[in-house]
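the two lines:
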Amino acid sequence: MDELEQWRIQLQQWSRQGAEWFHQMPETQLYAAIAVVFVTTFFLLSIRLFKRTKSNTVVLTGLSGSGKTTLFYQLQDGSSHLGTVTSMDPNEGTFVLHSEIAKKGKIKPVHVVDVPGHSRLRPKLDEFLPQAAGIVFVVDALEFLPNCRAASEYLYDILTKSSVVKKKIPVLILCNKTDKVTAHTKEFIRKQLEKEIEKFRASRSAISAADVVNEFTLGVPGEAFGFSQCHNKVTVADASGLTGEISQLEEFIREYVKP
Amino acid sequence: MLEQLLIFTRGGLILWTCKELGNALKGSPIDTLIRSCLLEERSGAASYNYDAPGAAYTLKWTFHNELGLVFVAVYQRILHLLYVDDLLAMLKREFSVIYDPKRTAYDDFDETFRQLRMEAEARAEELKKSKPVAKPVNNSKKQGQVQKVGFEGGNKKKGGSGPGSDGGDGNGRKMENGHANGNTDETKVALVANGKENASSNIGAFDVNKLQKLRAKGGKKTDTVVNKGSKVDPNKKITKKNRVWDVSPTESKLDFTDPADQNGDENAVIVAADEGESMMDKEEIVSSESETEEDEEMEKDSKMETKKKGWFSAMFQSIAGKANLEKADLEPALKALKDRLMTKNVAEEIAEKLCESVAASLEGKKLASFTRVSSTVQAAMEEALVRILTPRRSIDILRDVHAAKEQRKPYVVVFVGVNGVGKSTNLAKVAYWLLQHNVSVMMAACDTFRSGAVEQLRTHARRLQIPIFEKGYEKDPAIVAKEAIQEATRNGSDVVLVDTAGRMQDNEPLMRALSKLVNLNNPDLVLFVGEALVGNDAVDQLSKFNQKLADLSTSPKPQLIDGILLTKFDTIDDKVGAALSMVYISGAPVMFVGCGQSYTDLKKLNVKSIVKTLLK
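prediction for all of em together
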């Protein structure tokens, strides 16, 4: 307590000295100083705004167990380490892709976010979507059919989010685990997802009167749904997180986050 | 023996796993633990039981919140490994020293782990041995406590768990005892004590913790002194320690740990730290408690007398950011939050568990600058609430109805609940909503018990112009429902809404009838209708309904409550806690909210507004 008292007295002294010094200064200098302060703050703010417009964030999303965290570490370190378990928090990292480390010259790092896929943690996705330059929707190609409906519902939710539609954020549907023999092909997965989303479109447009979460509807009314009808670009690619076959994913990232 | 030991980040990357133990686990206990326990805000519990075909594991875990690490140990359920908690704590301490967020491989940790494990095992052995040898006064005192705990456990056990597993456990324990005890005289006593402990450790690991504390107390005579005066007498400690070491044959093993610490500290200090772990903790807590008390007092002073000093220090603290949060720091804020939740009609049990889980997730975290403890706690609670209320499964019923339609099967919804919560009224509302979306609906009047129930439903059916299946009163509702579903399949109805009689959760015959109805007809959706007015009883209602549906089911995968319909939501103003209690206890989402008297008064739950109201 005594120490605090001393501190207080010390501070008061300093403030008094400062005020005296302030009065001695000529006015022009004061104005100049204020102007300098204003200009710098404006400059810094504008830099920040400018930076925002050119985002370098790529969001990895998809159902739990589809291999997002493995892909994240493949991108960052080029290895899946000892393996992964269900994520409880998002993984974030700003780094130069592992495959590009050897390259010369200055490469712009990518901010990759791996959002947990557990349905209880879905609200976290909304935090990252507004700043995303690209969304990677990871699908488990091995265990696709049992999870097909859940996956397409999640994808539907993402594709109808206002932040995604308005900014036309490109979406990559990444079929993971294709190193396994019994994995489905990406064409099959694309068709199945389109079919499921078509069904969702019917039920969701009916529900929208009661629920105002999805303001946007997908596709063209009266036509079968296809990903080509989306306002934003939706592409499909293969990958294998475990063996490190992620060239198509890296291509996608580099297409929207220029090196 | 331990089956597996893992260290991973909250992000999901496994940092280290014990290679020696490299047993392949059956099923995926770790993922199940995370999904159904840690993410459901149940991390306040102390252990989790995992069941898979051919495997029964118990999992224990501990968090390092500041670094975002999770330590999980897996072992066979039948073995009651007492040293696991100890081992995890030591592991946490040692690993946090070498942890570096950039590093992802910790091969060199193997050696440290081996030593820690030996140490922990030795200590467990030690405690077992030292128990009968301890002084009589001490012993009887301890036993009294143990017996008390055991008694509680016994009582609880009568209510719940089955006898099958119990017997197995008892055997295992006896065997352990057999080789732990040298003296035949005391074996008997120890056996009795152990048997009781066993009962208590069965009901939950909270008691296991308690027991370990008790055991620690039994081992250390000076403990009470330490508790009262926070001063530790080093001489006493060392002599006491020596006594313990002399008895044990594992001294060399324990000495072995000194190089492992690698801190280059004095030998004595390390030795003291090894044995007196709990004391150290206690001392720290005591001191910090007194500090926080001071702080609080200061805050109060500043409020009352508007002293500048208090304001200044509070300001300084908030700017600098406090060092790691401790349980004592969190307690006042958590208590306030719990009270607030309870005023919003959240069941007390639920509020308690939630606060424990939030405390577990915050303990050890650094408080960011410019924040207060209360706001940090509030933010954590908000996150937890959003997570709980966000549905785990799809609540898009229309989608499911369409899927069932494709398979040419009617989609069957059974409405269950206690008396007078509004099952029939809300059934009519759901029917109206479905009709609006071009789904053909049929009602089944399976309330064959209450007079006028069938007529009530018939009135609704006439107003909505939908078919109703009825067989009058005094019939078996399960059969009526079955016939109704057959009828619906014949005439091509998409949805069958089954109304059941209201029943109290304790009414055994009626619950049996309900279970029969559900099991016989295998409905697509069992909707629990509960009123939003309910308080603490919500927990009892839902858990008993679920319990009965599970217990009285014949199939290995019993159908439980899939969703909740919350009625009378317009009558409760801001006391929305029932929604939280129900969702937490059952894990099922709130699918509809009834909020008025007309057919149109059916809404969806708005998670954000509920959370906002709860924390207001």
